[in-house]
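Hi V.,

Quick status before I head out on leave. The structure for the redesign project is tokenized and pasted below; the design run finished overnight.
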């Protein structure tokens, strides 16, 4: 919690909270005593919280700190969660196994790319259309954030800095979701963060900002031949009774070029499935 408070404090400008500009100010962001005053607590008490010497501030204090730091709803929810950890739940963490009912749902969506991830952005399951939309990425075992950095590295070498700016938005979304949903005590989260920190300067910079935000919806550019690059709308929802699993679907605006591309891709998939079924039927007849 202390790291989060310190990072968010340093990102705020005095003018953001109505304080006068001071040319002599050397401290980035707000001073501790300024945050304490906005939260209506003593500077000494705020210092203890930020330094981790008071690990259980009251709900009222946490709410005041969220307001003092101008946190949005996601940031406030995250602050409440790290201020009220539930260690007894961590001991009973369930394995990341996708239920049979969710797998059947994925397979039934032959015209909608869909996949399931966990809190660490590891892909747990994906239907065939999703694997066609993002070949080599939307397959079980892939970490989406690490895959995004790999793609960024490759495309930046080929196409220059413009692509880097475009992909940073996606990477920021993933990092915000990783921090929002992840459990700091999870060995897998620590592994992902450690590996990315050692490889990518931009990850270390963005991770240190402590931005938190769950994945909800947005646009994702993909390449579908022969249509080339198209934009698909993605939406992510939590899976009931699977608290650390998330279902993401891709959609396209009706009548758009993106919709034509998805329709062509799903039509080819359905043809493959039909032909595969006929081949199996023929094989069964020959065997009989």
């Amino acid at each position: 919690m202390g790291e989060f408070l310190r990072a968010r404090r340093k990102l705020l400008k005095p003018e953001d909270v109505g304080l006068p500009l001071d040319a002599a100010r050397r401290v980035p962001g707000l001073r501790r005593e300024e945050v304490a005053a906005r939260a209506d607590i003593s500077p000494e008490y705020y210092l203890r919280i930020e330094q981790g010497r008071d690990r259980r501030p009251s709900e009222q204090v946490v709410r005041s700190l969220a307001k003092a730091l101008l946190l949005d709803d996601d940031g406030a929810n995250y602050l409440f969660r790290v201020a009220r950890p539930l260690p007894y739940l961590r001991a009973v963490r369930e394995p990341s196994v996708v239920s049979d009912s969710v797998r059947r749902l994925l397979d039934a969506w032959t015209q909608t790319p869909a996949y399931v991830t966990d809190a660490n952005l590891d892909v747990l399951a994906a239907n065939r259309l999703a694997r066609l939309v993002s070949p080599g990425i939307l397959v079980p075992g892939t970490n989406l954030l690490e895959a995004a950095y790999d793609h960024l590295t490759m495309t930046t070498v080929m196409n220059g800095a413009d692509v880097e700016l475009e992909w940073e938005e996606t990477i920021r979304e993933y990092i915000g979701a990783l921090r929002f949903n992840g459990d700091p005590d999870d060995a897998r989260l620590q592994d992902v963060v450690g590996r990315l920190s050692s490889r990518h300067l931009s990850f270390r910079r963005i991770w240190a900002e402590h931005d938190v935000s769950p994945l909800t919806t947005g646009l994702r550019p993909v390449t579908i031949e022969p249509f080339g690059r198209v934009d698909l709308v993605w939406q992510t929802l939590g899976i009931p009774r699977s608290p650390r699993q998330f279902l993401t679907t891709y959609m396209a605006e009706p009548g758009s070029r993106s919709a034509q591309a998805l329709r062509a891709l799903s039509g080819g998939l359905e043809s493959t499935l039909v032909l595969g079924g006929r081949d199996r039927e023929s094989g069964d007849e020959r065997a009989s």
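Above is the designed sequence. The chain is about 55% helix and 15% strand.

G. will cover questions while I'm gone.

Best,
W.
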